[in-house]
Design the sequence.
């Protein structure tokens, strides 16, 4: 059985400028930087390191994003619940179609796990193909957290 190599990365990589859309900035002059650490073969998922300096801005999510704060802090407002301050170790999920106001007091650095949403018919076909594959494939020794692909 042929397998693919595991990809290893560090979050302390050198980042490149990644400007926030000017119309989204509410106050300050936040400077954002990022670097893509990995991409899935089908380009629907990636892992990114991102940081930002002081400022307040809108962010509109057109894909699912799970964020793990690794340094600094940010206050998030989503219009559905009270403001929430996040710091190192905190994790938050932003579903595609959500909006949040980010307030960075000094600095924040995060690792983001992003996943593009497939159109419903394609998503259904993928689920069916995975179900068929699971039924035809012997169970792996040791198991997996994500299930069979």
Sequence:
């Amino acid at each position: 059985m042929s397998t693919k190599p595991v990809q290893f990365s560090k979050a302390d990589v050198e980042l490149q400028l990644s400007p926030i859309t000017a119309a989204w900035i509410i106050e300050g002059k936040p400077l954002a930087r990022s670097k893509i650490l990995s991409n899935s073969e089908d380009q629907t998922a990636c892992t990114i390191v991102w940081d930002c300096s002081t400022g307040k801005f809108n962010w509109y999510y057109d894909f699912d994003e799970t964020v793990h704060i690794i340094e600094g802090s940010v206050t998030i407002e989503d219009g559905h619940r009270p403001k929430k301050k996040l710091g190192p170790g905190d994790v938050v999920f932003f579903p595609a179609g959500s909006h949040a106001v980010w307030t960075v007091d000094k600095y924040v650095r995060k690792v983001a796990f992003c996943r593009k949403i497939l159109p419903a018919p394609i998503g259904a076909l993928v689920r069916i193909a995975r179900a068929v594959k699971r039924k035809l494939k012997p169970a792996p020794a040791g198991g997996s957290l994500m299930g069979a692909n």
About this structure: Strands lie at 16-17, 25-27, 32-39, 45-60, 64-72, 74-77, 84-86, 91-94, 99-115. The two ends are 15 Å apart (CA to CA). The first helix runs from residue 120 to 136. The helical segments are 120-136.
